[in-house]
Amino acid sequence: MAYVITEPCVGTKDNSCVEVCPVDCIHPTPDEPDYDQVEMLHIDPDECIDCDACVEACPVDACFAEDQVPDEWQSFVARNAEYFKAK
Ligand code: SF4
Ligand code: SF4
User: Fold this and answer.
1) Staple partner for 8: which of 33, 52, 62, 74, CB 3.0–4.6 Å?
2) Nearest ligand, measured from the Cα of 26
3) Which helix (H) or strand (E) holds 75?
């Protein structure tokens, strides 16, 4: 499984999750060149260790375990993964 970032991150993108993720699997970080172009951040499903730290850190409750993503935001599971496939 992996964790997933969903709709509330769009327009918030405040990096609280990046600061707490122990394996640095949330991208892009502010140091990466595409940071200004993206509207939200994404979790790399191959690197996430399901630690739950991002859920606690996110001020807008955008992070969910994959099996707890609300129905209306299911498309974000693929959207997070697609971001890394394009890399
Ligand atoms: S669950 Fe843990 S490892 Fe996975 S993205 Fe969140 S903080 Fe990073
Ligand atoms: S803490 Fe939440 S709103 Fe902030 S960047 Fe991470 S997922 Fe987006």
Assistant:
1) 62
2) 1
3) helix 75-85
Ligand 1 lining (C-beta closer than 6 Å): 3, 20-21, 23, 25-26, 43, 48-54
Domains observed in the chain? 3-85 (3.30.70.20)
Q: How far is the CA of 58 from the centre of ligand 2 (A)?
A: 5
Separation CA 21–CA 56 (nearest Å): 11
C-alpha 39/C-alpha 50 separation (Å) is 23
Count CA atoms closer than 13 A to 72's CA, side-chain side. 3
The amino acid at residue 66 is E
Distance CA 87, CA 84 (A): 5
Q: Is the peptide bond before 28 cis (omega within 30 degrees of 0)?
A: yes
Instruction: Please list the ranges in the chain whose pLDDT falls under 50.
Output: none
Q: Which is it for the CA torsion 29, 32, 36, 39, positive or negative?
A: negative
